[in-house]
Amino acid sequence: MNDAPAILTPAYYERLDDLERRHWWCRSVRRVARSWLASFLRPGASILDVGCGAGGFLGELGSARGDLRRTGVDVSPDAARRARPRAGRVLLASASALPFRDVAFDVVLSHDVLQHLPDGDDARALAEARRVLSPGGVVSVRTNLGRDELGARGLHRRYSPESLAFLVRASGLEVVRHALLHPLPALLGRLRGAGRRAVGHRTPEEHGLALTVPPALLNVTLDLFTRLEEPLVCALPFRLGAGDVQVLLARRPARFA
Q: Whole-prediction pTM value?
């Protein structure tokens, strides 16, 4: 299959790979995901990355834990080719129609995927994630944050924390953790009128990505700052009202239902 938008070119994945390795924001959200998943990655756990892109996160997990059974899916043949050398098994498939049997995985990842699916497919993708999860298994969700952008539905759909939590629960999953990350950088961005975005899209000529790596000193400073900010934000017993991205961990009930 190949339902990948034309914007998802080899150059796109080359840039994406570079951004995810070097940009403070990408490094931060990956640290949080690894931290939240750590207690669920039992020896030999099976993990599925839906929309694995260049395969960097699966590669990181495999480097840290050689016992993990890693599988990725993506709609782009270019993504699959780039991901396979380091991500384990990678298949061409849609998030809304996963080619796996029921209860096949212990962990499912859905990072920066839901907001780019056609209307209605976000709910189907979460239902599919639940279907392939074993009872007690978890899905790690990351999406953008805010109200829908005018004229951008289906490409940059945005979710309020309440709407994302509702969508996850409606799929039959239980919310375990839910946080908004980078509250101070987000507030500073608003004051500057810039309002930084996550890995957004521009035009094919710009290789699809709106995000660029900041100057070295600023990038290192924000990387160090978020290393301090992340554990504080995630340890709070309540969800902060500011941030530039939301992360959510949900569990399939530990009973067949």
A: 0.89
